[in-house]
Design goal:
Elements lengths: L17 H17 L5 H15 L5 E5 L1 H12 L1 H5 L6 E5 L17 H10 L7 E6 L5 H12 L3 E6 L5 H5 L2 E4 L14 H20 L16 H15 L3 H10 L4 H7 L5 H10 L4 H11 L6
Parallel strand pairs: 1-2, 1-3, 3-4, 4-5
Helix pairs in contact: 1-8, 2-8, 3-8, 5-6, 9-10, 9-11, 10-11, 11-12
Length: 301
């Protein structure tokens, strides 16, 4: 498979001047991101399907081994602080367990039986979304986990860097990132890993957008828990509600620093009214504001 092949161009890489070697590796990173473009439609279809399932209360489950598993965990771990995604609706099925995040557990990737056991133990259902990554597309653990999740009715996404591989066949949404040979043969933490991270950025952020956790390019579902995020929240509410930051800060304090609710409170609604309006809008600030505008009613003093 291409990710394991030796490139004729780079066969003497170790004898090159350092500047030339670094430039060659940089070019590989650019090529990795370019390899995501042909997969954009597949990513978009996966986003739509995943958002529908997660909107019904499902969980987002990442599965992988080695570098691919670590890339998956990095993506998922950033969703709670960025979009306030609930920790109880985020699952990591890493081959070798959590310890494999810090220390290699090479044999774990071959344990397909463990993958099936973990999928069953997670009680995966039709509202869950499983994302499996494997540069080779043939890692037994990842293929088995995704195949079992598909059989259990979950929305499954398989991301691989080689065409015609078992992982792509096991997933409802196969996403091929054809990055080809690595500068260092088989070192898939380079081009393959970069392409995987770029694709996951698009997928997970796209899902959060479809779930109403982004409005006007802002992460309005963020929950501010430190000084930096407090300032960011104040600026967002001030901009969205058209008020000064003192009013924004007061509104945020009333709703435990929830940007969506504070935006409505800053416009004059009380907390209960803001909550009810957001509930009717399915949590979408865009729809809530549109409904408020369409009502033609002035907010109470």
């Amino acid at each position: 498979m291409a990710t394991e092949d030796v490139s004729v161009r780079y066969v003497d890489l170790d004898d090159w001047p350092t500047a030339d070697a670094v430039e060659a590796m940089f070019e590989g990173q650019l090529a990795a991101v370019a390899a995501v473009r042909p997969a954009l439609r597949s990513i978009a279809l996966a986003v739509e399907d995943a958002a529908q399932a997660l909107g019904k209360g499902g969980r987002l489950i990442y599965a992988g081994a080695g570098t691919s598993g670590r890339v998956a965990v990095q993506d998922g771990a950033e969703l709670p602080p960025t979009f306030d995604w609930p920790a109880e609706r985020l699952v990591f099925a890493m081959a070798g367990g959590p310890g494999a995040l810090m220390r290699s557990a090479e044999g774990a990737e071959d344990d397909a039986a463990d993958a099936v056991a973990k999928a069953d133990a997670a009680a995966i259902g039709p509202n869950d979304v499983v994302v499996g990554l494997a540069a080779s597309g043939a890692t037994p653990y990842t293929v088995a986990f995704v195949r079992r999740a598909t059989a259990l009715g979950a929305v499954t996404v398989g991301i691989a860097n080689n065409p015609g591989t078992p992982l792509l066949g096991a997933a409802r949404h196969p996403i091929l990132l054809e990055t080809g040979v690595e500068v260092v043969a088989g070192s898939t933490r380079m081009k393959a890993g970069t392409a995987q991270k770029a694709a996951l950025n698009l997928f997970s952020t796209g899902v959060m957008i479809r779930l109403g956790r982004v409005y006007r390019g802002l992460m309005v579902h963020m929950r501010a828990r430190n000084v930096k995020l407090h300032r960011r929240a104040e600026a967002m509410v001030a901009a969205l509600a058209g008020c000064d930051e003192n009013i924004a800060r007061d509104a945020l304090r009333q709703v435990d620093w929830d940007v969506k609710r504070a935006t409505l409170v800053a416009q004059g609604l009380d907390v209960d009214m803001a909550d009810a309006l957001l509930d009717r809008a399915g949590g979408s600030l865009r729809r809530a504001l549109a409904a408020l505008d369409a009502s033609g009613e002035d907010a109470p003093d």
